[in-house]
Design goal:
The complex is a heterodimer of chains A (308) and B (231). Chain A has a two-stranded antiparallel ribbon. A two-stranded antiparallel sheet of chain A has the order 2-3. Chain A has helices at 3-35, 42-60, 64-91, 98-119, 159-181, 183-193, 195-199, 205-227, 239-252, 257-277, 280-297, and strands at 134-136, 139-143, 146-150, 156-158. Chain A has a single domain, classed as ABC transporter involved in vitamin B12 uptake, BtuC (Orthogonal Bundle), CATH 1.10.3470. Helix content of chain A is 70%, strand content 5%. Chain B has 231 residues and is an alpha/beta fold. Helix content of chain B is 35%, strand content 28%. The radius of gyration of chain B is 17 Å and the shape is globular.
Chain lengths: 308, 231
Amino acid sequence: MEFGPHLLLATLEGAVGAAVLALTALGLSLVFGVMRVVNVAHGEFYMLGAVLAWVVATAVGGHPALGFVAALLIAPVVAAIIAAIADLTVLKRVDYDPEATIVATIGLLYIMQQAALMWYGPEARAVEPPFNHRLAIPWFEWGENGFEMYYPWGLSTTSYKLFVIAAALLILAGFLALMTKTKIGLVMRATQLDRDTATTFGIPVERVYALVFGLGAGLAALAAVLIVPITQAHYLMGHDPLLLSFIVVIISGLGSVRGTLVAALLIGMSDGIISVFFSPTLAKILATLLVALVLVFRPQGLYGKKPA
Amino acid sequence: MLTLEGISTGYGPVQVLYDLSLEARPGEVLCLLGRNGAGKTTTLRAIMGLLPLNSGRISLDGETLSNLPAHEVPKRGIGYVPQGRRLFTEMTVAENIEVGLMTRRKGAETRERVLTMFPRLRERLTQRAETLSGGEQQMLTTARALCLEPSVLLLDEPTEGLQPSMIQLIRETVETLRAEGKAMILVEQRIDAVLSIADRVTFIENGHARETVPVETLRSDRTLLEKYVGV
């Protein structure tokens, strides 16, 4: 394949990755922004979403679309409830101490991983996509006969991949509307900006925390349900999304929604493109290098505010 | 009436208040006077339930507040204007007011009344709170507290760092609220302001409420001021 079509293909793959990464990283960023909790178990809620998607889709049976829709509705909610319970039974008990919560969520990570291994097993299982048409993409060239359109061999995507991008955009728009237009969003932002003052205006901070932790986990699980028909559900699949989410959140600056989206686009796209042209390892190396550079030259992140 | 009966509290192992008692009566301004670090702000924070009490009781019209979760305290009708304003800086003026209104589920009527008190805020509703001038920020933090339609208002150095015209406005606001029958506890450093606006003054020293006197006493005799504040 020539360079142009090849680049378009890589960009499309990158866009799918970026879309899913944006959702996952937003969950991590939300939890840190509001609760100041570094959720090391965030990737496990992603894994939980994928595993639950398989469980639900298998239980429902019938047409793949039926199982997928059920998974889309049920898996994130179950993951959110489990996260909220973890918040109330573990994080609240250590009083949201920054160091204790890191250790606690590391513990949570192993518990969830082992639980998945015990009940779900070590296999990687796929969820069937609800629809999956191969879409050939045309390419234009200025050839001997003037302007020509043709379909290069191998340049194609699937309708499901385009759906993932569209669905992620829709969910992001919904999340932004939730944060900026609704009362519950106002309450979450007030808690993020000043916990004590929020309390003096009747905001039950601990309940908000449980909600935020659930919402963060729900976003990760939702991202996983979207991606699991393309990849597969496996009990160790949480590592990469966790690493990439941390990279995104550090580059963007913690707690900034806009920054998280920009950084997710940057990291997701470059991860996809570099993986196609060179190797996935190089993509991770470059992303990590970028993190190091950001930490050295702009420790508060690209969109973060300097601490006062 | 807001009553503090022998409260002791502090930050973790550091005790700040010792057996402190006072009461705020409707239609009256009670000023807390004392040196820096005496425990004035801590007293207000304790009333808001932000600090757990080691002993003592805080009650409003007979209902005990000190065993409620902190977020329930403002819902009983206590508005708090904290030191340093503590606005939700990245939110708009309208959103800051909305948070105040949500506390006790007040609606458009309260919002209208508060914005009529501070017309400048009405012109700046869509502006972010951090872009306001100091005086406007103080108006907003006061307006936010008044959105609770509180029966008790706690004001922690509301005139700190403001220009004279703004100080005058805050003062007129306090007088209006007193005429409406609200009970107010005011922490204030400037003696002339205290003498002109307070009804009673409680001197706080090293976490103890030493004496509570009517303001007239201080106007004629400054020995207490010299003793507790050093002026």
